[in-house]
Amino acid sequence: MKRVYVDHVVDYLKRLSKFIDVRGAIYGSTARGGVYGRSDINLTVVSDHFDRPYHTMTLWRSGEEQGLLPKLVEALWVSPGELESMLKGFSGVNT
C-alpha cells in the first residue's frame, strides 16, 4: 500500500482515538493495492463505544462533517457484536 494511504489511515485512527478506543481494518481496492487516482480508503473501525444510542453516534459522526477526520477515509463504524454478526452472515455460520 502506498505510504500516502497509510498516513491517511493512521491520521484518521489517531484523531478518532482521542475520543474513543478503536481498532481498524482496511478493505477494498486500497487493501488489494489496486488504487487508481484519488480513490477513497475503505476502513472498518471497530469499537465497544459504537454500541451507543443513535444521537451519540450522530454527534461523533459530525466530527467527520466538520473536517475533524480526514475526508479521504470512508469508514464503516461497527461494534464488536455487529462485526461478529456481519461475519457470520457472510460465512453462513449460525452458531
Describe the structure.
The chain has a single domain, classed as Beta Polymerase, domain 2. It has helices at residues 3-16, 29-32, 54-65, 80-91; strands spanning 23-27, 41-46, 73-78. It is flat, with a radius of gyration of 14 Å. 44% of the residues lie in helices and 18% in strands. The protein contains 4 helices and 3 strands; from the N terminus they run αβαβαβα. Strands 1-2-3 form a 3-stranded mixed sheet. The protein is α+β, with helices and mostly antiparallel strands. It starts with a helix and ends with a helix.
List the helices and strands and how they pair.
Elements: H1 3-16, E1 23-27, H2 29-32, E2 41-46, H3 54-65, E3 73-78, H4 80-91
Parallel strand pairs: 2-3
Antiparallel strand pairs: 1-2
